[in-house]
Write a structure and sequence with these properties.
42% of the residues lie in helices and 15% in strands. By secondary structure, the chain is α/β, with parallel strands linked by helices. The strands form six sheets. Strands 3, 4, 5, 6, 7, 8 and 9 form a seven-stranded mixed β-sheet that branches. A six-stranded mixed β-sheet has the order 10-15-12-11-14-13. Helix 1 packs parallel to helix 2 (62-71), helix 19 (486-492) crosses helix 20 and helix 23 packs across helix 35 (797-807).
Length: 1190
């Protein structure tokens, strides 16, 4: 008699004929090709009423699997195919422990689920060795509520049977039966043509008869359809780093591992029908499902054991009194606070607010910079009173319902910004307060997206790399209003479509790539997400720990959205570099001036700040560094924070591409009486944006004002408009028009009556602008941060730029960009200096000292040793003194050479060449002096003798390094040109032609990337021939901010080939494409310029770039009272630095300028000379011109 599986889904009793209990999805990570939506949909097509998920060693996909099953009327069975260590899970001897056995486990109950997630977590946390492993000890301790199947051929029982160890197989089977219970262990037989499967099935049947352990049929599913077997092989090749033609790789060599129909499975196991019946029995017994919609907030210990609701109200009212002292506290503030507190209490989120308040209070108490808020929480006056945010929501008309809608129960979302250097301290506080087993980071999944899919598949197919690269490059960076998928690209990219239709190999490449596109490839850690639970996380979700990761913090196996469905508290602790910049700048100001700045309470009407922004000097200004933002600033000429809030919202692809910016600016320049607000009642709503619906909150206000909606219903309308779902839109449209015609609101309050014509018009406008509207709360919070950075830059530029440079020390392109900005605003950036410098960039007088940490080959320990010795014994006097005093094991020869050659030792006597000439000798003498000190010899002569060498050799008379060598050393060791840039003579020419700097290329919008011009010096040229036989070149072009790669091919290559010489200064016009590549598995992107036009600034490309003539220029004003003294100082400096470079003095007088060639005063140009001269004459009044010799 056949057993039927009975269970309830949507109140109906359903029957099934076979249930697949051994199923791998894409979350088996490159060992499963079954995307969950396709898998579950096919199961429904087969009439299946239940289905299991048993991925290899993990439970990554269980939430998505359950949701998909419920959507298709299928009962989900949650499980895992675990790896069982042959000995103990902590044993890691390759000879004995490299191979683990497979075992299929299914959760029959909640107890079983909890036991399973504990075991799976332990496999990663303590059992990982090649695979996440459990062991028999763990199985025995957590067997309750689980049903176990003996697994595939890699299972313990099948492996022993396969190898002829019948007695061992029986002992193992009986152990599993006794461990899981008589009715909870099954011998698993399979239907595939893998070697020995038939033999093992026979022996399993014999073992079943001998022991009474029942059989169960399965198919070890790895893909959905038989045709997908190739996709499985491709994924396995990607995982193993092999190709399809590699005969030594591990392969299935069969197409049997697919989702076979119930009929097919019954037919395959016609000899053992009871094995198929067992699947129904097991499915009927597995009645656990994850619970969604219930929240598990951690408990917050309220002082004195008080109620969280009461305590939240108490501290909120205290906060309001601080925010609005005396008569500033108005009824509107207290009324809004009472309303919000009521909603928060009703929804059960008082503890949540207290948790966030406590975290931020801790951070501030430790001096950890905290942001003023982000996202929609800025609309809450309770958050403002608690200092969760720093933006007054009443003043800026921000809406609480945009953050927490009482008509839509969902977990609130408060994201927090912290200094990126100290974010981990806040996470550690969470672990300490709530328990390390209740706090974890959140997993993310890397996926096989369009470009990477093509590259991976091309490699697996063994296609030539240039051919694969050519196809991958045809995938655009973005497609307006569409996802970047291969299918969409085939419709829109003509070259790709042509290649697909005309080249069979390319067609196969893309067909396979489309089938793996979007599948999970690997796991990572969310950059900001943290989850906090009210009890051990393994009471809710399984945990993951990356192999070889020494971080003790666990990671959830579910993504953020899945955790929220499970009711767990997810928070984003974002590390924001800008907060560190602000904090460092404020500290610099305090150190240098004694002024303590409360950066959250600076004046918001500072003229210098708005003047700086109006000039477009936005480098380093949060959110507004891009060229588009700078242009908007210049056009807008902001005068208040509202302007910055609007600009933040406008500076996005939608408004920029939809003409919204022009409409906004045009209306801003009109007289207020000329602006159309559609109705006088809407003027208060649209006044700040000059009649333009710019913010989502304005859509809500219009729905409230015209349609009579509550703000909660208005937020639902906003969401419906954003989703563009017709049924919801039709319902909302009817309610809005009907409400406009009424004289009372939905809440029974009186309102004006409006015409149907106005209602229809406003609904249409709201619907249109909802596609562009931005969250004003978020825009306001980040506009405030932008203002803080601009205020510091305008009022304390040296301190701000020093902090900014420190924050980007690891990016030479950004350091170069910001040094250029320093020059633009009149700040000198001096070379590193061992006698004055520190690890970070530091303001000194009106200049910035280069940070020693930014010097190549100079490590943190060496810097610490140098600074400690300098502070203990005073400045270093000579290179010999330096070598005798610092620990030469820490400050080794490589470090000292880097310090000398980059200019960090220029404050010591002698040229760089002289110091390099004696460096080995100085180190030898230094070691001798240190040995003498260690042996106590120095003390024999009393305290009158210091620790310096007994004598210091005279520096040799050697010629200083050439300017070219000095420039090359700086470039090599600092990553940029600091004292002299080979492009200095061409600055005006570059400014005239270039539309974008190298460092800003990635920030351009898709439209801006179509037509750019970059200009600089060619540093490297690589000529090659493509697979098609076409000649082309890749050139590295360096401008004043960094390096950009340009490709020159086709007709352009033939036309401009003579100009492609290293050392030539050129501009390149063309379009940008984004090249995607990987380094150590991490995806990277690089902007390249495809050349359409090229021009050589230097004329003939046959000029030899190696030999150059340098001229040093000085500018002085005749009106300057110090001019005579400056010229006198100049003569002294020139006499002390005689060389071969000419000197020209430019004297400005009465609007004109007269040039004087100082004959007989030729000079040897060095970084130290430039630094001294610029300190006398000013940063912009001393420069070096370089030109190619005739």
């Amino acid at each position: 008699m056949r057993i039927s599986a009975h269970y309830k889904i949507s109140g109906e009793s359903l029957l099934s004929d076979f249930v697949h209990l051994h199923v791998h999805t894409e979350y088996s990570l490159l060992d499963g090709a079954a995307a969950i939506p396709k898998l579950v949909s096919r199961a429904e097509e087969h009439g299946m009423k239940a289905l299991a998920i048993t991925d290899h060693g993990n439970m990554f996909g269980i939430v998505k699997f359950q949701i998909a099953c419920k959507d298709h009327g299928i009962k989900p069975i949650l499980g895992c195919e675990v790896y069982v260590a042959p000995r103990g899970r902590t044993d890691r001897v390759h000879e004995f422990d490299a191979k683990a056995f497979h075992l299929t486990l299914l959760a029959a109950s909640q107890e079983g689920y909890l036991n399973l997630i504990k075991m799976v977590s332990e496999g990663y946390i303590n059992g990982f060795y090649y695979k996440p492993r459990v062991d028999r000890e763990l199985l025995a301790a957590h067997a309750k509520g689980l049903i176990a199947l003996s697994g595939c051929l890699a299972g313990d029982v099948p492996s022993r049977l396969r190898n002829g160890d019948l007695d061992g197989a029986e002992r193992s089977a009986l152990w599993h039966r006794d461990t899981f219970g008589k009715d909870n262990f099954y011998l698993e037989i399979m239907d595939n043509t893998v070697d020995d499967t038939a033999k093992v099935n026979e022996r399993l049947a014999q073992l079943s008869a001998a022991t009474g352990i029942p059989l169960v049929a399965s198919n070890d599913i790895h893909y959905v359809d038989a045709e997908d077997a190739l996709i499985q092989e491709v994924l396995m090749c990607i995982d193993q780093g092999t190709t399809l033609t590699d005969t030594t790789r591990f392969a299935f060599d069969t197409s049997d591992f697919y989702l076979k129909s119930q009929e097919r499975m019954r037919e395959a196991f016609s000899r053992w029908p009871q094995a198929c019946d067992a699947t129904l029995e097991i499915a009927a017994r597995c009645n656990f499902a994850l619970t969604f919609g219930k929240n598990y907030l951690p408990k917050f210990d309220v002082p004195g054991g008080r109620n969280p609701d009461d305590y939240l109200r108490e501290i909120t009212m205290q906060g309001l009194a601080r925010k609005y002292p005396g008569d500033l506290l108005l009824p509107v503030h207290t009324k809004q606070a009472e309303y919000e507190l009521g909603v928060i209490k009703k929804m059960g989120f008082s503890a949540y607010f207290l948790i966030v308040w406590d975290l931020l209070r801790f951070a501030r108490s430790r001096g950890i910079p905290v942001g003023p808020g982000r996202g929609s929480v800025a609309g809450s006056i309770v958050a403002f009173a608690l200092d969760i945010t720093k933006i007054d929501p009443i003043k800026y008309d921000l809406l609480f319902e945009r953050f927490l809608n009482p008509a839509r129960v969902s977990m609130p979302d408060i994201d927090m910004d912290f200094c990126y250097e100290r974010r981990n301290e806040v996470i550690e506080y969470c672990q300490h307060k709530y328990g390390a087993d209740r706090v974890a980071q959140i997993i993310t999944y890397g996926r096989l997206m369009a470009k990477n899919s093509i590259r991976d598949v091309g490699r697996v197919m063994g296609m030539p790399l240039p051919q694969v690269d050519r196809i991958a490059k045809m995938i655009p960076f973005m497609i307006p209003d569409k996802k970047v998928t291969i299918k969409n690209c085939l419709e829109l990219v003509v070259d790709l479509k042509t290649a697909y239709e005309n080249d069979p190999e390319v067609k196969r490449l893309l067909d396979i790539s489309m089938q793996i596109e979007g599948l999970a490839r690997n796991v990572g850690v969310h950059a900001a997400g943290v989850v906090i639970s009210e009890k051990q996380l393994t009471e809710h979700v399984p945990l993951y720990k990356a192999p070889r990761d020494d971080n003790e913090m666990y990671i959830t196996m579910q993504e953020g959205g899945d955790l929220e469905k499970l009711g767990l508290l997810k928070m984003d602790f974002l590390g924001l570099r800008t907060l560190t910049v602000i904090s460092d700048a404020v500290k610099f100001v305090q150190e240098r001036t004694g002024r303590e700045i409360d950066i959250d309470n600076i004046p918001l009407n500072d003229p210098a700040t708005y003047e700086l922004l109006g000039k477009g000097l936005c480098d380093g200004v949060f959110q507004f560094e891009g060229n588009t933002a700078k242009n908007l600033m210049v056009r807008l000429q902001p005068t208040n924070l509202d302007d910055l809030i609007a600009l933040n919202a406008l500076n996005r692809p939608g408004p920029l591409g939809g003409g919204m910016v022009d409409d906004f600016l045009n209306n801003r320049n009109k007289h207020p009486s000329e602006i159309d607000y559609f109705h006088p009642d809407l003027e208060p709503v649209l006044r700040d944006t000059f009649g333009i619906i710019l913010y989502q909150e304005q859509v809500m206000r219009i729905a409230q004002k015209i349609g009579g909606f509550s703000l909660a219903d208005a937020d639902n309308l906003r969401r419906a408009m954003g989703k563009k779902k017709k049924e919801e839109m039709d319902k909302a449209h009817g309610a809005f028009v009907e409400g406009a015609l009424k004289d009372t609101t939905a809440e029974g309050e009186p309102k004006n009556v409006y015409t149907k014509q106005l209602a229809e018009k406003m609904f249409e406008l709201m619907n249109y602008f909802s596609g562009y509207g931005f969250n004003k709360s978020h825009s306001a919070a980040y506009a405030f941060v932008a203002y803080q950075t601009a205020w510091l830059k305008a009022n304390y530029p040296v301190e701000f730029m020093a902090a900014l440079l420190t924050s980007v020390m690891q990016s030479t392109d950004k350091v170069s960009k910001y040094i250029q900005e320093c020059r633009n605003i009149g700040i000198e950036v001096a070379p590193p200096d061992i006698n004055m410098g520190f690890a970070k960039f530091r303001p000194v007088d009106n200049r910035i000292l280069y940070g020693l940490s930014a010097v190549k080959n100079v490590g943190g320990n060496a810097i610490e040793a140098i600074i400690q010795e300098r502070e203990a014994g005073g400045p270093f006097k000579t290179i010999f003194d330096l070598c005798s005093r610092v620990d030469l094991k820490t400050v080794n020869s490589k470090t000292l050479e880097a310090l000398v050659r980059c200019g960090a030792c220029d404050s010591l006597p002698g040229s760089r060449a002289q110091k390099m000439a004696v460096l080995d000798e100085a180190m030898d003498l230094g070691r001798c002096a240190q040995r003498d000190r260690a042996s106590g010899q120095a003390s024999l002569f009393g305290d009158d003798f210091d620790s310096a060498p007994a004598f210091e050799p005279t520096l040799p008379q050697v010629e200083e390094f050439s300017t070219e060598t000095i420039i090359a050393d700086e470039k090599d060791l600092l990553g940029l040109y600091l004292t002299v840039h080979p492009l200095d003579p061409y600055r005006d020419w570059i400014k005239q032609h270039a539309t974008v700097n190298a460092v800003d290329l990635m920030d351009l919008t898709a439209a801006e990337r179509r037509d750019v011009c970059v200009a600089g010096i060619i540093q490297h040229v690589r000529d090659f021939t493509t697979q098609r036989g076409d000649s082309m070149a890749i050139i590295e072009l360096e401008d004043l901010t960094g390096t950009v790669v340009c490709s020159v091919g086709g007709e352009e290559y033939r036309r401009y080939k003579p100009e492609l010489k290293e050392g030539n200064v050129v501009y390149v016009k063309g379009r940008i494409y984004i090249r995607t590549y990987q380094i150590k598995g991490e995806a990277r992107e690089e902007a390249r310029v495809v050349c359409k036009e090229l021009d050589n600034r230097q004329g003939s490309a046959n000029q030899a770039p190696a030999k150059k003539i340098h001229t040093m220029h000085f500018r002085v004003s005749a009106d300057n009272a110090k001019a005579p003294k400056l010229v006198g100082e100049l003569k002294n400096l020139l006499n002390a630095n005689r060389g071969e470079s000419r000197v020209i003095l430019h004297v400005d007088n009465n609007g004109g300028s007269k040039d004087f060639l100082l004959r007989g005063n030729e000079v040897r140009i060095s970084g130290e000379l430039l630094r001294i001269c610029r300190s006398f004459f000013g940063q912009d009044n001393v420069w070096v011109e370089s030109r190619v010799a005739d």
